[in-house]
Amino acid sequence: MSEPTHTENLDRTGSAALPWSRARDLLATQTPHENLTFFVGTIRPDGRPHAAGVGAIWVDDALYFKGGPGTRRSRNLAANPACTVSVRLNGLDLTMEGEAHRVTDEPTLEKVAAVFREGGWPATVVGDGLTAPFTAPSAGPPPWHLYVLTLHRAIGVAGAEPHGASRWDFTR
């Protein structure tokens, strides 16, 4: 991922714009080691929203998350890759907007599975997906799909010093 093409200060109290590096560095250091819950928002075929908690990690400057092939999330993404991903990092609430696409190439699957293992989820690659002795009960049977988020926009609101709120655009 590249640096944002545009940063907008959303703070109305006089704080300076937040640098993207703050969000990026928190993602890099807190995943997979911190107990974080990510929420993916997708769009159902009839236009209604859907949100679900997911296991997600930041690897090589990109966000990856998993989903069972039969889950509403995976079915929605197959029809429309537009989505949001939200997380409360230590000191920063972050919402990311973009498109999620399935990852099937073995080198990337192996690299991401290794990072999941580092964080305590014993993922291995099977075929073009991931498996492990356990995952969320709602995920269905393995193998589970792996997705990568192509980031278009992110919004961060800092709950810790230095305070502020910013929007980062990655495409124009």
TrEMBL record:
KW Magnesium (keyword) present: no
Pfam families: PNPOx_N (PF01243)
Name the UniProt record assigns to this protein: Pyridoxamine 5'-phosphate oxidase N-terminal domain-containing protein
Domain Pyridoxamine 5'-phosphate oxidase N-terminal: 33-113
PANTHER family on file: HEME OXYGENASE HI_0854-RELATED, PYRIDOXAMINE 5'-PHOSPHATE OXIDASE-RELATED FMN-BINDING
Listed InterPro entries: F420H2_bilvrd_red/Heme_oxyg, Pyridox_Oxase_N, Split_barrel_FMN-bd
Keyword line: Oxidoreductase
SUPFAM superfamilies: FMN-binding split barrel (SSF50475)
